[in-house]
Structures are given as C-alpha cells and as structure tokens.
Design a protein that fits this description.
Layout lengths: L7 H37 L3 H4 L1 H24 L1 H21 L3 H29 L3 H32 L4 H4 L1 H15 L14 H24 L4 H23 L7 H4 L2 H30 L5 H7 L2 H21 L1 H19 L8 H28 L7 H36 L4 H30 L10 E5 L2 E5 L3
Helix pairs in contact: 1-3, 1-5, 1-6, 1-8, 3-4, 3-5, 3-9, 3-17, 4-5, 4-8, 5-6, 5-17, 6-13, 6-14, 6-16, 9-10, 9-17, 12-15, 12-16, 12-17, 12-18, 14-15, 14-16, 15-16, 15-18, 17-18
Length: 490
Amino acid sequence: MLQTFLTDERRRWAILVVVCFGQLMIVLDTTIVNVALPSIQSDLGFSQSSLTWVVNAYLIAFGSFLLLAGRLSDIFGARRVFLSGLVVFTGASVLCGLATSPALLIAARFLQGFGGALTAAVVLAIVVTEFPQLAERRRAMGIYTFVATAGGSIGLLAGGLLTQSLDWHWIFFINLPIGVATLIAGRALIDHTPAPAAGTRVDAPGAALVTLATMIGVYAIVGAADHGWGSPQTLGFGTLAVALLIAFAAVEARSSHPLVPPAVLRLRSLIASSVVRATLVTGMFATFFLGSLYLERVRGFDAIQIGLAFLPMPLTVGVLSVSVTARIVRRIGTVPTLLGGMTLVVTALGLLSTAGPNTAYFPTFAIAFGLMGVGMGMAFTPLLELSMADVPPDDVGLASGIVQVSMQIAGAFGLAVLSTLATSHTHSLATSGDSQPVAFSGGFTLAVTVGAVAVAAGLLIALTTLRRGRDTSSGEVVYVDERVEIQQAA
C-alpha cells in the first residue's frame, strides 16, 4: 500500500492534498457551470425560466444533505462518507455531461449536489482529525481555505476556457479523471479508523425533518428572485420550512440519540463563527456573481476575460492562507487577525460600490479584488480554527457539516437578496430613462453596498462574541468555550 512508503507526517499532508482536490471539484462546480449556461440553453433547449434549475437543483441537494452527511461521518466514519461522496459526485458529473434533455441534466445535477454534500461535509473533519497539533492544523486549514475560497474564481476561468475551446459537456467530464484519481488516492491514504460515535443510532425522524426543512428552505430562497419575496410561493415554502424546523427541534428534545446534540448548539465559538462566516460569504458571493455580470454587461468582458479579471483574488488568498496568516495569528492572535481581514473585505466592497458605467478595470476592480483576497485569506482560516476549537471528538463531523451549511445557506440567501435588490434597482433606473449600462451599474453598486453592510455587521458580531487571545512565546492559544488553554508548541 501507498502508506508503507510514507512517514506519518508525509501521509497526513498527502491526505490533505486528497481532500482538498475533493473540495476543489465541488467549489469549481458552483461557478464553472454559470459560464456555460448560455451554451447549455441553446444546445438542450432550456426555457429561460427552467435554465435556473441547472444551478438550483445542485444548490438545493447540496445544502440539504450537508448536516446529515456530517453526522453520518461521526457514526460510520469520515473515510467511508468521503469516498462514497466522491463516487456519487464523479458518476453524476458524467451523467451531466451525457445529458440530452433538460430533465436529465437537472436530475443529474441534483444527484451531483448530493454527492458534493457527502464529500464536502467531512473534509474539515478529516483535516481536524489528521492534524491535532495546532501549528500544523493552522497550516492545513490555510491550504483548505485557499481551495475553498479561491476555487470559485478559478471556476470562472476554467469554465470560460472549456466552453470556448471545447464545449459545455467538458465542464462536467473534467471531473472524471480528477474524481477517479482522488478516489484511488483517498482509499490508499485515509485510514479506516473507528468512527468517533460508532454504535450510535441514526435519528431517522430528525434526519428526515431537518433535511426536508433545509431542502424546502433553500428552494424558497433560490426561487425568491423569480417569484418575489412576498409571493405566495416564497412565503408558503418559507413558512413550511420553519414549521419543519420547529418539529425537528421537538423531536430532538425527546430523542435519546439526537442528530444534533444540544451541547453542540451551545458551543459559542462554533455558532458565533458560523454567523460571522455567513456574512463574509454574502459579501464574497456578491463580488463573484454580481461582479461577473457587471464586467460582462457593462464592460463587455467575455468569459475568459472575466476569469482573468478575478485572478488577484485567488492569488492573494493563496499567499495569505498558505503561510502569512498563520504567522499573523501567532503574533497578534486569532480574533484580531479575523477582524483585520473582515475590515479589508468591507473596504473592498466599499471600493466596488463606487463603480459606474465608465469605471475601468484598473485600478478600481483590480485593487478591490486584491483587497478582497487579502481579507478573505486573513479571515477564513481563523474562523475555521475558532469553529472547531472546542468541538468534542464525537461531534467533529457534525460540526464540519454545520460550517458548510452556514456557508451554503448564507451564500444562497445572500445572493438571492442581493440579486433581487440589484435587479429591482436596475429596472427602476431603466424605467426612469437611464441607459442599460448606467442602470445596471446602479443596481450593482447598491447590491455591493448592502453586502458591505452585511460584512460590517458580521465584524461587529465577531468583536462582541468571539474571545480574544494571542499566542505567546511559550505556547499556542487554543480557544475553548469558557477558557483559553495554553498548549506547548510542537
């Protein structure tokens, strides 16, 4: 076996590469498809209204099964869930590429989202388990952060290249060699260790209720842009999702083996950092999706140019996440580093809010995208550390699922709200006589301004709820719910 030729340290870092490739496939898929939507529509005959389901089917399945997948990893083992997710995701990607009708593509995208949830929900749990030492864990989380945040902009570039040089089918077929290689390496490297909560029964009623509630809630969110936030459909499905969540809470309170133990929900660092992460993701999605539309419709960029335009973001995220952020954390502490990163994200969004119909890419967008990358590189790694710092070993998979859910639900909700605001304001300006570039840039600047306010609110939440602390020369700070614990550096 491959493990025979690797030291324990090298095996851990090899596992990190494997799980990051799994995460990369999933992150790429959230943006790479958007670039190819016009080609998919013309080839398969999608109507304009049904075309959104190429994206929505994936988002609904992905967001709905994350929490359950995380809990299943605690009970059956992260290795089994991760590898199962890779098989489903890779197989579904092939089905997407082979689809010959809208119905087949939408069904395959839903299956792909389910596989993505199984894979993504346990990546962070594997990282935490494989890297128990804080110094190494910070480096590993930095690399994971780079993949999770920069993959979106890489997907824009990859989608443009594949769609223009080949055709839209290859945005899905490209997952086959990557998925197979990741699956083989994962089977060889990741140990089949006993699951931390092995023997615990799955709370089937609770699992069904929370999955259905999340699915209906995400459906209401992604459909709000088309039907309106006050429409009977949005309000009806939103109310049903809340009712199912209340029923889930009632079932959990009486269950002897709850899917989400109440103690986990009392972990202040996990819950508060998830809320803060949600605000950051809202700002990030506003930049990715609305920024892409601005560059296309106002500045006339094609798909490849849009991908290249976003490169300052993944490059700066990579530099910060892989090495620089860990050193900053050791010097000034986890929470101050997070606050500094979020301040830069607010600054970047504020700069984007000054864009007009004649604003050139240089310097406004180049500087804003660079600042956004620096801010995310400084913020996301400390957030991951704070999220997992005081999670019991039996619940690390569940906590990993909660982290992912906070990102996906916030991304879907934030993007739906900001898109609605941008569309409404654009329509209002166009109706009053403004030209299309002027109207669209007005909608864009309103949306990113609201995104900046959301991140600023998250900064205030972080400032008031997350504990401060900093590393000392004699050890490293580990954040625990009610105390700061000093561990000797390895």
